[in-house]
Every structure is written in structure tokens, then in C-alpha cells.
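ok posting inputs for the S-adenosylmethionine job
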Amino acid sequence: MGEMHLFVTAGRGTEDFVELELQEKLNAKRIKKTDGKIFFQTDLDTSDVASSINHLKCVERIFVCVLHKNDLRITSAWKGKQQLETAFKNISRTEWMDCYSTYRHCTRLQHCVTECCAAEQQTEGHRYKIVNNVSEHQMASDPDAKETAAVCEMRHMEKTNSQQLTNVNSMNKGCKRRKVEVCDTITFRISCKVSGLPGRFFKAQNLGISLGILLKHHMQWKADLRNPNVEVFVHVNNQGLMIGIPLTRKPLSEREYFQHIGLRTPIAYIMAQLACIQAGDVVLDPMCGAGTILIEAAKSWPSAHYIGSDRDVQQLTKSTENIQKSREMARIELMYCDALYLPLTDKSVDVVISDLPFGHIHGQEKDMYALYPKLVHLFNRVLKTGGHCVLLTSEKLRDFLLHTVCSDTVLNHSGHEDKDLLNMQTSAKIRELQQQPTEDVLPKESRDILCLELSWIVKCIHYVKLGDTHAFICSFVKS
Ligand SMILES: C[S@@+](CC[C@H](N)C(=O)[O-])C[C@H]1O[C@@H](n2cnc3c(N)ncnc32)[C@H](O)[C@@H]1O
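and the output
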């Protein structure tokens, strides 16, 4: 088989991180980035793709690409419908079956990997009991279970041969030998999304039904809205028509090791990546909420020590449960305290990463003008020289944070290109805050801190979209 055509979805603003990750982990070539989607080809075989999928951290979802047509010129409902149907009909039966086989192969291997990982987390005795259970209960009827048992068996043999624990890659080589079977009748469901200009002409539901009828006749597949074998995603927008089959049942960003959802996991991972965590580092998230950043960082940089704190007991309960579920108890320590009173000695931390409150859910925006200078003062105290600090904040508070951290001189020497960094609006806002007669908005303490000169350097500032919120990841080094 030649190169495989895939695409992924990514949060707005994360596309560059995703591109690098795809090059590194999936050997991606001929990459094309559109808004929120990245199309690429890979020469890896299906087994290698399947095993690498679990290691993708910046991606939301991954699809095998059935069709990507970006030369549609939809100018009317009638013309548009005809073009879409023609493009759909032009996909050959072989192309559909190739994509379906890739999908089946990947999801089966994913299933093997998940089962094996679950088995591995048990005690030695338990683990093999589970493998046996698989064979007793399921093997007769479920081909996936046979595969799972075979992979677990392989793993057991490799372990008893006192080799290193096999990586997912080598497990999958075992699965690869098994030919992907195609079941008698393939059932499908179409999920259709129409946006941009085409949204004026078509309703997603109607288009989904029309394309579903075409697919049924063309492939003799059967529609099943409840429990289909395969889900076909169709997206029509200003950029054209995209048809894909997701390679994982759940989005990759919905990590199975979280019980409570906090910050989006790809954003947490990207923040940790920007923090340049080294083996032995002490990493602090002083407002850890559900612990997403700490857990994402600990999973990928396991040789560091992580400390989290929050002043909200409910949030700490969530982070405790998440840490337990993710089995990261040994690496992450939690404290119930206000970040401003953290019992940490000066220069004891290598990295600070934090998703700062924006004043939407936790407090009000005006309170952040008092809080941010104090937080920055604390980070400056506990960070070692050369330490990294990566902070997420809202568009509104970004410039205030930058002003708090860096004097103009430092900003000018940081090589940062953003001309509106300390724009008129921000300077005016800061002047206004400094002139406030009352201490309501900016208490004297915070006002004094604003006048301190910290020798921090801005490393980079990245725009990211969090739902409807425009936010920025600001990365600094204490020099
Ligand atoms: C934006 S949330 C962090 C969400 C977190 N990243 C997650 O994934 O769940 C901000 C957190 O800061 C905490 N917080 C606000 N002010 C604080 C303070 N002065 N000290 C400690 N925690 C604080 C809030 O309780 C909240 O959990």
C-alpha cells in the first residue's frame, strides 16, 4: 500500500504545535494546514500509525482521509448539491474499502493496546487472570478479544524472557500479521457539519441524509444511527469538502485517565512543552484546579517532581481524584493553600506553569489586576535563575501580565515581534489603575510591585482559543 492520507483536527492556535508533533511521531509529509484541520500523508504502515496515535498529545481527533476537495465553488444550493454529490459518487469502492480497512486495523490495534495497558496495571497474578478471562469469555465470539489475548500473551512471553517491557510498537507487529477482516454487512452513520457560505444553502441534516443514501447504494453498507461499525464525518465549509473516518472512537484529547475535566489537555501539554522541563526539576502549578497541567506534564516528563496547590477544596478533590486515576500519585504532591502564601523557599522551583484565573469563573476580572502582580512577585521569589514560567491568561489580561513581568526595556530586548504588545490601550489601562484613588482595584501592594523591575525575558506568546475565549500562553525565563 502507498502513502496513507490522514487528517487531524486541532484547537485554533495550536496548529503549529500539531504540525511538529505529526512530523515527529507520524513522519508526516505534504502537510496542509487549514483552519483547525491539518491534512498530511505518511509512509508509516497501519500498525505504526495505530501505535503512534496514543502518543499524540496536541491533536484533538485523527481521521483517515476519504476525500479532501478544496476546489469547490459553491454559489447556489442547486449547483452546490450537484457538486457535492458528484464528488461523493467519484470516490471508488476500492477507496472506501481501503479507508475502512485502515480504520478497522487501527481501532483493533487500539483495542489491543488499551486492554494490554489495563492488564499491565494489575498485579502480576491479576494480569494473567485477566488475559485468561478474555480467552474464556470472549474468544469464541469476539475476534478482537482473540487479538487482545494474543498481544497480552506476547507481552507476557517477552517479559518472562527478561527483556525490557515491549513498547506498543512491537506489540502491534504481532497484530499486523492478522489480516483485517471485513464483516458481512458494514453499518455506518454519517455525521455532517456545514459551515461558512455553504451553510446558507444546506442544512447539515439534509445533506447527511442525501449522502447516506448515496453511500448505501454505492457500497451496500447499511445505515445504523445507534451502533454503527463506522462513523463517516463530512464537513463542508468555505475551504471545500472533507470526508474522513475517525481512527479512534473518542477524541484523543479526551484522555481516559481523567475523571474530571479541567483545561483542555492539548493546551496543558503544549504549556508543559514550552516550559522545557528537565529531569529532576521541581515544577509548580500554584493554581492547579483539577490538576490537568500537572498530570499532562508528569505523563510526558516523568523524571520531574510536581507540586500543585489550590485554595478551593472542591478543585483539590478533583485534582486528587484525577491524580489517582492517572496513577501519578508518586510524582505529584498537592497542597491546600492560597498561592500567595505558598510555603516554598526562595529559588526552590525550576518551572512554574499555571492556567491563571481570568476573572470569569474564579473571581472577577477587576480582582485580577490586584492578584497578578502579587503572583508574579511570588513566582519571581520561588523560581531559580534561568527558571521557566509559562502562564495562560485571557486576551484582556495578557498585556497587563506582560507589563507586570517585564519593563519596556526587557521587552524591547526579548526579540519579540508583536508591535501591539504594550499597546496604547494597555498603557492607558495601567495608568488608570495606578491613578485610582481607592485601593479597590489595585491595592498599594500590587501597585508597588508594578514598579519593580524584574529581569525576566519573554520567550514567546501564543494565541489559543478556549471555547469562545481568546487566550494567550505567555512563556518567560527568569534571567
Ligand atoms: C483557571 S482555574 C485552573 C484550572 C486548571 N488548570 C484545571 O485544569 O482544572 C484557576 C484556579 O485557580 C484557583 N485560584 C484562584 N485564586 C487562587 C489563589 N489565590 N490561590 C490558589 N488558588 C487560586 C481557583 O480555585 C481555580 O481552581
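notes: The chain has two domains: 1-252, 265-478. Residues 122-181, 409-423 have pLDDT under 50 and may be disordered.
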